[in-house]
């Protein structure tokens, strides 16, 4: 991130896994989002467990880079304990650490109808395309 | 499922969670896929853990309903141990139990570029739309 030119940030919050290759789709997603959001928007990944950075570290890095408004998007399909319980606790810690920064969160990606449509289309294509 | 009219099936393989509400997006996805795939295609959910049915039970139900070709789609973003290790073991068990049925599997939904595009679009919309 380029300190001084950033005003807003988006943090993609994902579960994390032991296998480093697990994060590859999230890195591709972050790259796509950087291209869409433009140079004044910081885009970071954060993980609940097993990978770094965690959410407080990712938010702190964006604040240090100049972001005054940060949006956290849970890259989870469903709303289980991680989204309903762990995420709010982490958000509370972030807001307490950065009282002058607006820190918002979205509903998980799996709630979005267009995302579900893309998933359904992918599934349908698999019926015809596998050997 | 309506025995006798089904020839192929698709099983959406997801992680599972303790909170029953977690499965709601997967149920919506299955409904969308049923509408797209038509009445000759069985669409089922299966879970790795914490929810039922598991993959062998979901596959057995589709076989009992008449499916002779079954496609398993991992509804996971990343390829960690669940997709690289647990899923192949479950698929092996399914193939051993139903040697006359073609059981294929797709790469996880998170590998699909159109899915990632839909995720990136959702994330971008969150930058502008939250209060």
Tell me what the structure shows:
Two copies of one chain form a homodimer. Chain A has 131 residues and is α/β, with parallel strands linked by helices. Chain A has one domain: Rossmann fold, CATH 3.40.50. Chain A is built from four helices and four strands. The first copy, chain A, has a four-stranded parallel sheet, with helices on both faces. In chain A, helix 2 (55-64) packs parallel to helix 3 (81-97). The longest helix of chain A is centred in the C-terminal third of the chain and has 17 residues, at 81-97. The mean pLDDT of chain A is 93.
Short recap of the structure:
Helix content of chain A is about 45%, strand content about 20%. With about 130 residues, chain A is of the alpha/beta class.
Structural class of chain A: alpha/beta
CATH topology of chain A, which one? Rossmann fold
The CATH architecture assignment of chain A turns out to be 3-Layer(aba) Sandwich
Total number of distinct structural domains of chain A = 1
- The number of helical elements of chain A comes to 4
The total count of strands of chain A amounts to 4
**Biggest β-sheet: strands ordered side by side in the sheet of chain A:** 2-1-3-4
Radius of gyration of chain A: 16 Å
Order of helices and strands of chain A: EHEHEHEH
Please state roughly what percent of the residues of chain A sit in beta strands, choosing from under 5%, 5-15%, 15-25%, 25-35%, 35-45% or over 45%: 15-25%
| Beginning-to-end CA distance, first to last residue of chain A | 43 Å
The CATH class of chain A turns out to be Alpha Beta
C-alpha geometry of chain A: globular
Into which percent range does the helicity of residues of chain A fall? 40-55%
Mean pLDDT over all positions of chain A: 93
Q: What does the oligomeric state look like here?
A: homodimer
Query: What composes the largest sheet of chain A?
Result: 4 strands, parallel
Low-confidence stretches of chain A: none
């Amino acid at each position: 991130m380029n300190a001084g030119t950033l005003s807003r940030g988006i943090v993609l919050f994902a579960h994390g896994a032991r296998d480093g290759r697990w994060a590859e789709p999230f890195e591709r997603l972050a790259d796509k989002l950087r291209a869409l959001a433009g140079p004044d928007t910081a885009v970071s990944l954060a993980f609940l467990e097993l990978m770094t950075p965690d959410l407080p570290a990712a938010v702190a890095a964006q604040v240090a880079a100049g972001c005054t408004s940060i949006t956290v998007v849970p890259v989870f399909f469903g709303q289980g304990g991680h989204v309903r319980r762990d995420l709010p606790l982490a958000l509370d810690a972030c807001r307490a650490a950065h009282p002058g920064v607006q820190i918002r969160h979205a509903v998980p990606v799996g709630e979005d109808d267009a995302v579900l449509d893309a998933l359904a289309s992918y599934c349908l294509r698999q019926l015809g395309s596998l050997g």
